[in-house]
């Protein structure tokens, strides 16, 4: 897939002081490959991790480091920097930088420039998991979002300190994709309604037991976020998960497959339907009203009935069918053949298939490795983060939506 051509766009990159600063060098390279003119501000703390020479060599521009540079500030250089860019990107955005931005402080070149700008600002946070989850940081994040600052990440992952959790800076490619969306405010999904299902369904056996599966909902939530970032109006219908609700989307919480079908039909019409949910194939015909007890006579016999096929129901609608219908196929063997059969039998336009067998690490993991099938093509994508899979899928949805006109 070709990357967006952003020739002529101007990005001011603020590099904060954290171990993730090394990723800023790769971000510069990726932005310039898309035609972006990159000017950088390197904070004093950032200089402890990357050198001005490295940043200058990759950006092909002088690096600004000092608010009190007589030659540069004689002409109010921080004002010029803040106004000449189309977008300001702060990566890595440390806890200190987020605090300064939220409080409106201006005690160095980076914070002064961000405060003086009238252009969009995107931040890519990077910090220890405990710093990210601290109440003070979350207050600052909430304030910045209320002020209109855009966020990418942070991702879950292993930290330089050895801890694991949210706080890892998003990969440069993912940041560059969000930059492309912000610099191209009109996308094929702008204003379109994208309906997404995510997570598992829980089918009750009795008041305390259920039939379910190991789906975490991570991929579906990532698709909802990516579609929203692309300008779509998003409705996310989610089964039971432990994930926070994505911001900026209409959210519907459900429990069972019947609940999910009802919520999907209530949310229609939609331009695009993406069925990432791992819907249980069967449910207990008559769930007990009381907890089942051991009687010594062996396990109870459960009478199962088939759940509705939500994907096929939507894809085969004679009226009001979304222009693009996407299914997901989680398989443990013969992935491509099973996915191709599902594509045809359920009448959808695209199938995203993956291997969820033992050792794949897909269910509950932060990464995915998928094969994307249409009626004419089979394309294997390399292993990547689920956020990146979602961003690439959203690009494909835009292309398919354009073809459906």
Features:
5-stranded parallel beta sheet; 405 residues; 2 domains; Rossmann fold; 8-stranded mixed beta sheet; 14 helices
The name CATH uses for the topology of the largest domain is Rossmann fold
Radius of gyration: 24 Å
Number of helices: 14
Q: Low-confidence runs (pLDDT<50, min 5 residues)? A: none
Content-based structural category: alpha/beta
Span of the ends, CA to CA: 21 Å
Helix content: 25-40%
β-strand percent reads: 15-25%
Main β-sheet, in a few words?
8 strands, mixed
Highest CATH level, the class of the largest domain? Alpha Beta
For the biggest β-sheet, the strand order reads: 12-11-8-13-16-17-19-20
Count of separate structural domains: 2
The chain-level mean pLDDT equals: 88
Name of the CATH architecture of the largest domain: 3-Layer(aba) Sandwich
Quick one: CATH superfamily of the largest domain? Answer: CoaB-like
The global form is globular
Number of strands: 21
Write the layout of secondary structure elements.
Layout: E1 10-15, H1 21-33, E2 37-42, H2 52-59, H3 70-73, H4 77-84, E3 87-93, H5 95-103, H6 109-116, E4 121-125, H7 129-133, H8 135-146, E5 150-151, E6 155-158, E7 164-168, H9 172-183, E8 193-198, E9 203-206, E10 209-211, H10 218-229, E11 233-238, E12 250-253, H11 257-267, E13 272-275, E14 282-284, E15 304-306, H12 310-315, E16 324-331, H13 335-345, E17 350-355, E18 367-368, E19 370-373, E20 378-380, E21 384-385, H14 386-403
Parallel strand pairs: 1-2, 1-3, 3-4, 4-5, 8-11, 8-13, 11-12, 13-16, 16-17
Antiparallel strand pairs: 6-7, 9-10, 14-15, 17-19, 18-21, 19-20
Helix pairs in contact: 1-2, 1-9, 4-6, 5-8, 10-14
């Amino acid at each position: 897939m070709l990357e967006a051509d952003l020739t002529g766009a101007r990005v001011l990159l603020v590099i904060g002081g954290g171990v993730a600063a090394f990723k800023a060098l790769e971000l510069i390279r990726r932005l310039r490959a898309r035609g972006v003119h990159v000017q950088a501000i390197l904070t004093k703390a950032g200089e402890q991790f990357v050198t001005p020479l490295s940043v200058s060599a990759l950006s092909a521009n002088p690096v600004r480091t000092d608010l009190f540079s007589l030659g540069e500030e004689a002409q109010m250089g921080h004002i010029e920097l803040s106004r000449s860019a189309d977008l300001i990107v702060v990566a890595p955005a440390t806890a200190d930088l987020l605090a300064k931005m939220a409080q409106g402080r201006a005690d160095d070149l980076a914070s002064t420039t961000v405060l003086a700008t009238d252009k969009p600002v995107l931040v890519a946070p990077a910090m220890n998991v405990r710093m990210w989850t601290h109440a003070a940081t979350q207050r600052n994040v909430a304030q910045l979002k209320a002020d209109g600052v855009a966020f990418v990440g942070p991702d879950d992952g292993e930290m330089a300190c050895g801890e694991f959790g949210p706080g890892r800076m998003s990969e440069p490619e993912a940041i560059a994709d969000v930059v492309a969306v912000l610099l191209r405010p009109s996308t094929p999904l702008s204003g379109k309604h994208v309906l997404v299902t995510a997570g598992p369904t829980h089918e009750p056996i009795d008041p305390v037991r259920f039939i379910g599966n190991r789906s975490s909902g991570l991929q579906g939530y990532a698709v909802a976020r990516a579609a929203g970032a692309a300008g779509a109006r998003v409705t996310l219908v989610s089964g039971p998960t432990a994930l926070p609700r994505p911001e900026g989307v209409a959210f519907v919480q459900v429990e069972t497959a019947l609940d999910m079908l009802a919520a999907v039909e209530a949310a229609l019409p939609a331009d695009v339907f993406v069925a990432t949910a791992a819907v249980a194939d069967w449910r207990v015909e008559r769930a007990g009203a009381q907890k089942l007890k051991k009687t010594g006579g062996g396990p109870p016999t459960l009478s199962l009935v088939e759940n509705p096929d939500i994907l096929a129901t939507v894809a085969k609608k004679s009226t009001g069918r979304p222009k693009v219908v996407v299914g997901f196929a989680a398989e443990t063997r013969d992935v491509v053949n099973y996915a191709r059969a599902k594509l045809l039998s359920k009448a959808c336009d695209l199938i995203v298939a993956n291997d969820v067998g033992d050792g794949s690490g897909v269910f509950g993991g932060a990464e995915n490795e998928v094969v994307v099938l249409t009626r004419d093509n089979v394309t294997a994508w390399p292993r990547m983060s689920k956020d990146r899979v979602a961003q690439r899928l959203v690009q494909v949805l835009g292309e398919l939506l354009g073809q459906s006109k």
